[in-house]
## 1
Amino acid sequence: MSLLVVGSVAFDSIRTPHGEAEGILGGSASFFSVAASWFGPVKVVAVVGDDFGDEHLEVFRLRSIETTGIERAPGRTFRWKGEYVGDMNDAKTLDVQLNVFQNFSPKVPESDTSTEFVFLGNIHPRLQLHVRRQLSKARLVALDSMNYWIEGSLDELKETLSEVDALVINEGEARMLSGCQNLLKAAKEIQKMGPKILVIKRGEHGVTLFNNGSVFSAPAFMLEEFKDPTGAGDTFAGGFMGHIARTGDLSESNLRRAVVYGSVMASFAVEEFGLKRLLGLTPQEIEGRVRDFAQLTRFDV
Ligand code: AMP
């Protein structure tokens, strides 16, 4: 089934306790689409500048990602510079250059307006809503957001929230958005705003899924190699939505499996800087880690 993402395509400069990288391909739409490409076809709506070469587009093509919706605008591609220290749970943003994003009005290609599964990556809520309204046939629209929009564009974010089915958000941001410290209460408040499916990302504590009345928690996969957390959230979303689009199944048990696929994809992403590990995967590695995940969480009552 069809899957589409709108989000950022970026050049990232990253420093972590394990090394650094300068100007590498990143952005929410890049991490999402490369992760989702392991599950089925995926289309990207984004904007890049004239410094975005064929060698960068080739990365998407190698994964058979549809790039018709990647618009090229005059100017430089979006740039983000960040640093992680200590336990690497939070990124410290050192620099953001919006560049071509400043005048971006995302357009879904005519041939893609009947897409069934949609991920609105972390961009201005007004742009997210603009894309959402171009996709009237969608069966599941999921949204990502961040503290920046909760603090600065709350009214627009609430309007967008009222028109989506799912929200994928960090724990701290869920508390900020709902005004509730208790996560169960926070989830209920957010569900009242629109999204009936809520996925709360809790860093090294894993992920919790709230769907109608039920709650499911998956731990983070335990890793020996952990170099760069950049893109972990978007990669999670790529695995989560990729599995849902592949199966077309919105049942509670399948959403739980999707949470595990998302967690598994995120666990690969953080093993290397940027997209490197995600690009070099095999389907066998993914399924192997899903089995390891089942082993990690299995117990008898
Ligand atoms: P994550 O680690 O999953 O939260 O996402 C990291 C990615 O988000 C990086 O590759 C950045 O290029 C991108 N990013 C950071 N800040 C922004 C922003 N304000 N708007 C869009 N994308 C961003």
## 2
Amino acid sequence: MKVVSIVGARPQLVKLAPMSAAFGVTGHRHVIVHTGQHYDAALSDVFFSGLDIPAPDVHLGIGSGSHGAQTGACLSALDPVLAAERPDWVLVYGDTNSTLAGALSAVKQHLPVAHLEAGLRSFNRRMPEEHNRVLTDHAADLLLAPTQEAVRHLAAEGLSERTILAGDVMVDVCLRMRDDVLAGRVAVPPLPGVPTAGEPYLLATLHRAENTDDPKRLALLVDALADLPLPVVLAVHPRLATRADEHGVKLERGAIRVSPPLPYAGLVAAVLGGTAVVTDSGGLQKEAYLLGRPCTTLRTETEWPETLASGWNVLVGDPGELGAAGWAATATRPAPAGDRAQPYGDGQAARRVVEALEQRAAGRVPVSA
Ligand code: UD1
């Protein structure tokens, strides 16, 4: 079996790591195509080296642009690559513009497409990721859902026949990295602004268009982080750096300690070493949950509602509405008591995905829920 994985942005590289390892122990040919949506070394190269992913077989060098220009450039650059490879499966990941372009290029060439992390919904039609998810799910032939909730969403859209519950490959990679970090098997650089090991701090990230692109909203959120009573290590995505600069919003002030984007080992270590997480990232909400740290999400909805159980994750659309004391108490709250459920699977999702692709490529099992 030949599978082409199409990736382009940071969170896809994290999901690619367990898939690459799972293909690596089979005789299958796994071809990695990087669209180049993310091109900074801190958002791309460090994930290949840090997660033992082989270098991409093809790099399209697309880069940044408006949503249409970026998606269109990926689509036209992918066409000849998929035409030449003619794989048994095209595997697309998550919800970025590279995901949608990959799915479109494949279906238009009658190549079977599998969507990893299918069925997530925010029901917020203003989010570019929501369009990408919905359109990719409806184009794809096999929908690899990470959770029961995702399976239900796909059923509600009439897509049960193409759906399987695979579990979440992020669990595979996150728990493996947790064990490596705790055992001291990986090098983790010190975090800026946290001089004493063991000093309490919060880890924060902010990169979504709906939080960074409106100057007033960005200023409000950065003010809220700066006012918190613990040091806040803010790992700055280039989108945040660019928008903050354009809008004249100073990031390094009050409680905030600015850090460059973290490699995966550094991120897992930063979550484990901290008191709690404040973020608008989907992946980091889940990583906080898996690693047992409370998370405050700077959005009004989440694609990962399982994290909200027992207060592990709390949605805060506008910190100002809580008042200064309420906001501080929410962001610094301790971990809830009691065990966490395991809605994201057992850390074997990548193996299950390979098996599902094998079975369906061989036509042995009809696709069913
Ligand atoms: C993309 C995904 C988002 C994902 C995020 C993870 C879409 C629609 N969004 O958002 O779902 O959560 O990746 O990081 O696909 N930039 C650089 N260097 C880079 C990449 C980007 O400086 O290597 C800057 C550029 O100013 C660019 C901006 O960041 O215009 C946004 O990059 P883009 O790839 O369009 O989207 P992200 O915000 O990264």
